[in-house]
Design a protein that fits this description.
Two copies of one chain form a homodimer.
Chain A: H1 20-31, E1 37-46, E2 54-55, H2 59-68, H3 73-82, H4 87-94, E3 101-104, E4 110-111, E5 118-123, H5 124-129, H6 131-154, E6 159-162, H7 171-183, E7 188-189, H8 194-198, H9 208-213, H10 217-227, E8 233-235, H11 241-257, E9 264-267, H12 272-285, E10 292-296, H13 301-309, E11 316-319, H14 321-324, E12 333-341, E13 344-345, E14 360-366, E15 372-379, E16 387-388, E17 391-395, E18 398-399, H15 406-418, H16 422-425, E19 435-437, H17 439-452
Parallel strand pairs in A: 6-7, 6-11, 8-9, 9-10, 10-11, 15-19
Antiparallel strand pairs in A: 1-5, 1-12, 2-4, 3-5, 3-17, 12-13, 14-15, 14-16, 17-18
Chain lengths: ~450, ~450
């Protein structure tokens, strides 16, 4: 077969975007009449050393996926032509819809290991087939929101902008990263379609190529300012950062006479804090005390903390690769596991991968000052003190009520981060956040082991 | 604005999938009549410690993007409504097409730092606007092909299957990873749409949930075998790996009587090599000497090398997260840089990010036994001994000749990997592969520095 793009549209919109074994299992389930109610939960198995907490994200896209999930006629034609499945099975796929319930924590909620991000309750074939794409959506957005939250905590009061589309892993990763980082506290993104798609504010300056294409840096600055008089942020490190700042200071009065203010400059290479100090002095001496300094280039939360400690005169940061690939932790150890089938709790006992059975709830307790004190992981219906985090989000295949707008989820996330224990808020080492497993959940696990042992 | 998905279709198909600054620069270029011919090159700046070489990938998708690149009416409506740009600029965008030339190395070619993967020669506004998505496509596929090639070299003769869609960063990442890993030597993928889209063979077994949903493991195995009689690979680690193998051995005669052969088993947890030895003995004792053992779960090229050294009786591997996120190196330090404008070579001199100016060519030399000896990076037109790697791929916005089919690119990649120096083929530390910068390129850099100095 030729390597041509024979299928168009967003690959994520089709149920064919799955692992082959989901289809073979679906076939076997239907052949053997295994259509009882299944309960799956998606959770992170363990927190990496550099992640003291998670921020749940992607629920809206997960729900949109479940509401719209179907096979297209082209998908079914291809499956039929592949010869892998009988015609009666493919005919059943044509009518396949998700009709189940979803419980989940709201987007922007802080979570820890073993705590479900989402629970799917549906006929086994439906709940099974949703696995791959649900993980694909929820894992990635949770990964990025968890990384972005660290940056937001490391740079309070600074303007953080996502610059990472180019090195994100494909188009959808770039867009979802723009959304998840805004949810977790970024001010916006450079990725244009994140505005029409998600309502994320977009920001932009200029590139080195703009400066290089001109015969002189001065001319490049002047051209840019005349074309974009409302947002003059000049990139000054193409040849020599301080020399670039001097040129800005010399150009500013001329622009001012034309009614064009210089809003600021961007640095993108070298020792950013050291350059920022020198540049600040040059700009101030040139009467540009109100201009801002924006920095980019290889920045992560460690760099942000260091800039904060040294009180570097930088007003905002453009952050790319480390954000949109979550480069220190590019994946979580997470799973979407069968916890109950046909009324019977289930548990996987594979070495190092054992899971807690049954439908679960998380209760969170707070200190008097509002700071999170600890969670209890228990079975649904077990009443514990504190706030229940997992809530009904879909019933019978349709969403329950309106989903929060992204700005509301963003405000919820900010409130959550403010309630983290101090060492987690400061990204410092310390005791892991306490997540207690309730006696009722221990008892259920013992019961399941006896039954399948 | 609400967080609704107001725009449908594949985000990667629209020119709006870019950084905002590309549009602001475009506006400034057009306002100031800067439409001269620009030459940009895309290359990896330096190789990470765990990457002795790169495998170029993604050229087909890059060319398809350039051929189809345009703004949709919805994109233009949104841009107009955003108030960021004047109407005459937006009108010009409606007719925007890529009309330039592309030179590139064929997909599957081995490359090193500073060597261009692609060169774009086009009017400055066009070449500039293509930057973000071109990097987004070429960086990711090259990242994954380079990772997959290490795995292919670490496990000669083994069946390697991509299992990584769920933890890939979004839908497109999963699909592109399936393609890039097949290109670099994988046998196939579990990701279904990679077959209709790219012609990649698809593979699949069963999940733990399938076993868990049944009242007994034996019944799960039998149901699966009866539904999928042509490809019975049974997952045996849900509860106890060796006990699972014993069940397979007991079930096999019954299935054989029904005409259903047991092809093999899959292990997914614990010490895979140790389990594989015990399982091999159990299967052999049960008369299943022809069955295969397939392993998955946290495997990377280091694990593959270790399995090879200990001669673990494993026939194939399913590899997920480490492949599709390139988890040890989730991004390359790469750049798409302006090398020439309006006939004048250009160069960026930012600290630690200086680039070689001008249009470049790479010549590769081989030893008598066919092994790569070293490359020369030089200016286009400079004749050096050896094979010229960079070739014309598009002229005037249209591809030149047919692109190789994916299977051809895969064969080219296999031939390339076979010609790597021995220590790179064995993934061992050793001297970096020699890439010499020709005197003519040094001279050009000096000339550019004098002119912009």
């Amino acid at each position: 077969m030729a390597d041509a793009t024979r299928v168009s549209g967003n690959p994520g919109d089709s149920l064919l975007l799955t692992d082959l074994y989901q289809l073979t299992m679906l076939h076997a389930y239907l052949e053997h009449g295994m259509t009882g109610t299944a309960v799956f939960e998606f959770f992170v198995r363990r927190l990496p050393e550099r992640r003291g907490f998670l921020v749940a994200a992607g629920l809206r896209q997960a729900i949109e996926f479940l509401e719209q999930a179907r096979f297209t006629p082209e998908d079914l034609d291809w499956l039929a032509a592949s010869g892998r499945f009988p015609k009666d099975f493919i005919d059943r796929l044509a009518d396949f819809r998700f009709t189940g319930d979803v419980h989940a924590v709201p987007e922007g909620t802080v979570l820890f290991a073993d705590e479900p991000i989402i629970r799917v309750t549906a006929p086994l074939p439906e709940a099974q087939l949703m696995e791959t794409r649900l993980i694909n959506i929820l894992h990635f957005q949770t990964l990025i929101a968890s990384k972005a939250a660290r940056m937001a905590l490391a740079a309070p009061g600074k303007l953080l902008i996502d610059f990472g589309l180019r090195r994100a892993h494909g188009a959808e990763a770039g867009l979802m990263a723009a959304r998840a980082s805004y949810l977790a506290g970024f001010a916006g993104t450079a990725t244009v379609p994140a505005a029409p798609r998600y309502g994320v504010p977009v920001y932009g300056t200029m590139a080195h190529s703009f400066v290089q294409a001109h015969d002189s840096e001065e001319l490049a600055f002047e051209h840019f300012a005349r074309s974009r008089p409302d947002s003059v942020i000049l990139l000054i490190d193409t040849y020599d950062t301080e020399a670039g700042a001097e040129k800005v200071a010399r150009l500013a009065p001329k622009l001012k006479a034309l009614g064009i203010p210089v809003h600021g400059v961007r640095l993108d290479s070298g020792d950013l804090a050291a350059h920022a100090r020198k540049v600040r002095a040059i700009l101030d001496a040139g009467g540009l005390q109100d201009s801002t300094i924006f920095a980019s280039g290889g920045i992560d939360e460690d760099a942000l903390l260091e800039f904060g400690r040294s009180d570097a005169p930088i007003n905002g940061y453009g952050i790319g690769t480390s954000l949109t690939t979550s480069s220190d932790v590019p994946a979580f150890d997470c799973a979407y596991k069968l916890q109950e089938y046909a009324g019977r709790p289930k548990r996987k006992r594979s070495e190092g991968k054992a899971t807690w059975p049954g439908r679960k709830q998380v209760f969170r307790r707070y200190n008097a000052d509002g700071v999170m004190r600890g969670d209890v992981l228990t079975v649904e219906g077990d009443r514990q003190g504190g706030e229940a985090l997992i809530r009904l989000a879909m019933r019978g295949g349709a969403r329950v009520g309106a989903l929060p707008a992204l700005v509301q989820a963003r405000a919820h996330c900010a409130a959550e981060l403010a309630r983290l224990p101090a060492h987690l808020r400061r990204l410092e080492a310390g005791p892991p956040y306490p997540v207690e497993v309730a006696p009722s959940l221990h008892a259920l696990a013992d019961q399941v082991d006896r039954e399948t042992g």
